[in-house]
Amino acid sequence: MTGSAAGSGWRDAEGKALIDYPRPSVAVDVAVLTVQTGRLHVLVVDGPRGGNALPGSFLRPGERLAEAAERALRTKAGLVGADFHQLAMFDAPDRDDRGWVLSMAHGATLPRDELPVDAELVRVDGRTVSEPLAFDHADMVSRAVDDVRARYARRIDPSGLLPDTFTVLELRRLYEAVFDRPLPKDSFRRLVIDAIEPTGRMSTSGAGRPAELFRRSGDAELPAGASGLLTV
Amino acid sequence: MTGSAAGSGWRDAEGKALIDYPRPSVAVDVAVLTVQTGRLHVLVVDGPRGGNALPGSFLRPGERLAEAAERALRTKAGLVGADFHQLAMFDAPDRDDRGWVLSMAHGATLPRDELPVDAELVRVDGRTVSEPLAFDHADMVSRAVDDVRARYARRIDPSGLLPDTFTVLELRRLYEAVFDRPLPKDSFRRLVIDAIEPTGRMSTSGAGRPAELFRRSGDAELPAGASGLLTV
DNA sequence: GTAATAGTGTCTATCAGACACTATGTT
DNA sequence: AACATAGTGTCTGATAGACACTATTAC
């Protein structure tokens, strides 16, 4: 337990003061996912050894992991307002050749238009990034995709990739991008219709009949069978 | 990224060598779940401040988190052979009054008869432990329950809570314990029957018609709708 | 035989998926 | 008018859940 030893005076079974053990550096890396041209993409930055890498940072004293992740995105990509989800701690002792560095991978999601116009995005095929990334960052992207799919299968656009109001078509296009598969128009509508709130307003559509605008309903969950429709 | 700075000579934006930042202690805590008398229970040990706590340990140099978790279980509870799953990093700066300690919560699962006979078990109601635990360990238990349910909804007894062969009744009793709700006998059988392998052998039952013994099938997954049946 | 449990046939309500149809806008 | 997209009615096949029935053991 976190509470079994350490602190000045605490000693382990062999009599060694636990506080004296060398401590690892702790880092955070963030896979920022977005949707561009109907496909999932991940934000990358220049890595320390060249090549692409996920934005990340070292944890500072007293800081929480989510704060470090927010700081990394702000300083390295000019991003604010993402919501972070812990994915996994990557802890292979040799994963970073500069020393013993544990890294907590985070997933985040932002609409394309909240990213800088010159942000470098790499396409995600299925659940894997389409070109190599530094370190174990490609594995982190896969975990981020799994996480965003699991969350989107439970609720309607929980990370706000769409604007406040949207049509059912826009919502379906988003889900087709997230789950990387076509979704039948009528079944999809019936699946989500009870989990979104109609606004009276209509979309100023380009062509064809205008579609009604909906907004996310506070806490509405998708039916349990939704994961079947989405992931099969 | 984990690779943006640090190492001798690397400096952050303010010119401070990142390697010089104070580093947190990193610990692991393990919520070992088991089934006793048809209910989920969690293994606890004596905490450093009295009261019950999850077994845990500090991470040692070069060690992986799973190794630290295995060592914690071996030295504090005499357990071997559990499979660990990372749950979340608990990182509140004040979660441990002895210093800055991050703890990676792990979930593990073992059959009751692989635990010591005198192991102290606390019942789990729903997804919360039925009595207070030290630190944030009660939250860890909830996460462990969520994790084991998610894994059991995808596959048949992936953690081997049952012996190598088992009857459909034994499997159903296990799932009723894990999901904390009664499951209809016939629907449950039809749900799992294609994901387990019949052995020719029959259970030496106490009373009634003998039941066939099955074994886990290598990779068989439960249908996607299973989560509906199990969690609704 | 009775008791007890294993396993199956069947009916119903629900729902995904497909298809076609109607509705309402633009040009 | 033609065209395009929104939204709905309806049929079908699959299946969860309920129920009853048959099957096979112990006593």
Largest interface comes to:
A-B, 65 and 65 residues
What is the oligomer described by this structure?
homodimer
Count of runs of 4 or more consecutive helical residues of chain A: 5
What would the average pLDDT of chain A be, to the nearest integer?
89
Tell me the series of helices and strands of chain A, N- to C-terminal: EEEEHEEEEHEHHEEH
Tally of DSSP β-strands of chain A: 11
- As a percent range, the share of helical residues of chain A equals 10-25%
* Category from helices, strands and their pairing of chain A: alpha+beta
Strand percentage of chain A = 25-35%
The radius of gyration computed from the alpha-carbon positions of chain A, rounded to a whole number of angstroms, is 21 Å
Low-confidence stretches of chain A: 1-10
Shape of chain A: elongated
N- to C-terminal distance of chain A = 40 Å
